[in-house]
Structures are given as C-alpha cells and as structure tokens.
Amino acid sequence: MAGRRRRSSPDSEARRSSARTTRVRMTGEERRQQLLDVARALFAEKGFEAASIEEIAHRAGVSKPVVYEHFGGKEGIYAVVVDREMRALLDSMVSALSAGHPRALLEQAAGALLEYIDTSTDGFRILVRDSPVASTTGTFSSLLNDIASQVEHILGLQFSAKGYDAKLAPLYSQALVGMVALVGQWWLEARKPKKDEVAAHLVNIAWNGLSHLEHKPKLGSWR
C-alpha cells in the first residue's frame, strides 16, 4: 500500500540497538587520552610536518573542533606527546641508575635506553625527529643533557675517589650518554643483534676504555 512505512527486520533493529549501546560517550579525560594515543601513532608514522589535525580527528572518529578544544592545534597536541615521552624515558633512565659501581651504571643506562626503544618504539621515533621550529617543548638533545647530568654526578664521585680530575666528569658523561644514544638510534631500525647483546658491547667499549684512563692524556702520546 502506497505511503505505508516499511517494517524493519528484527536483524536491522538489533544492529541499530547494538550500535546505540556500543557508542558510549567518553569523558573529557578519556577523549583527551584517545586523541593523544592517535596523535602519538600518527606523529611516529609521518612526523610532525606530514601529520594533520584532519587526520588525527578522522582516526579518532571526531570532528576537528574537538581536537582544537582539547589542545588548541597540532603544535599543542604535539607538545603534550613529546613531553610525555621525554618524561617516560628520563624517568626510566634515572631510576635505572642505582648501582654504585661504574660498570653496573653503564649496563643500567644502556639497558634502560634499549628497553625503552624496544617497548616504546613510536615514542622514541617521535623524540629523535626534528621538533617544529616554533615548538617550546624539549628536544632529544636536551633530554640527553638531563640524563648526562645524572651520570655526571655519579662519575664525579668516582673520579674523585680514584684521583682523577672531577671537573672532567661532565665531558665524560656527555661522551658516554651520547655514545649510547647514537647506538640506540641506529638500533631503532637495525634491531640486530638483540638488545642485551648491544648493551653488552656498549659496556665493553666504554668500560675497557674507562678502566685504562690516563690521568693526563695528550694527543700523539701513543706514538
């Protein structure tokens, strides 16, 4: 009969009911975390410049104004993502530096960085990319400086105890942390050998060098 409404089948009614049930409204904090998770994956995949608010919103299933409401723009959400990753890596590195023996210290530092790369690959990819020019967030180099300052304190105590010039502790801490960080960036893509083996080789070259330090090294003294 013309104009009569078509009855929905039981299956279609059930599907609509299920959709209404599963579309649970997120709290503000839940939505914020969802957007951060989506943005983190996108920044790791494409980098800051290639990522867009449109794609973040699309992947999160929201409109662009929702992203702007929470973060003000792409720079804002990027800053929060970077800050969280920097704090996570710094906390894991600093908490690992607990042993008093210098060789154990090296093992802990190398192991902590490689563990972070292995378990938070997206986060590390974001940290080692170039930050946007206008960004006020920290960079990977500033993060390494924070870690080096922790190593510097421990090295300074060891240098003083063994008759070395403690004023040189900052130089050695930067060298050691820089070596571990650069190898970490290489291992991010290589993934061979296994992380424990990489850490062992890092400690090998660093420790065997440190254990035979000259008190007053000079260029050309090996001739």
Automatic annotation (TrEMBL):
Pfam families: TetR_C_32 (PF19344), TetR_N (PF00440). Residues 52-71 bind DNA. Residues 29-89 form the HTH tetR-type domain. The keyword Transcription regulation applies. Residues 1-27 are annotated as: Disordered. It comes from the Bacteria. Keywords: DNA-binding, Transcription, Transcription regulation. PROSITE patterns: HTH_TETR_1, HTH_TETR_2. One of its GO terms (biological process) is negative regulation of DNA-templated transcription. One of its GO terms (molecular function) is transcription cis-regulatory region binding. PANTHER family: HTH-TYPE TRANSCRIPTIONAL REGULATOR RUTR (PTHR30055), TRANSCRIPTIONAL REGULATORY PROTEIN (PROBABLY TETR-FAMILY)-RELATED (PTHR30055:SF227). This is AcrR family transcriptional regulator. It comes from Saccharopolyspora gloriosae.
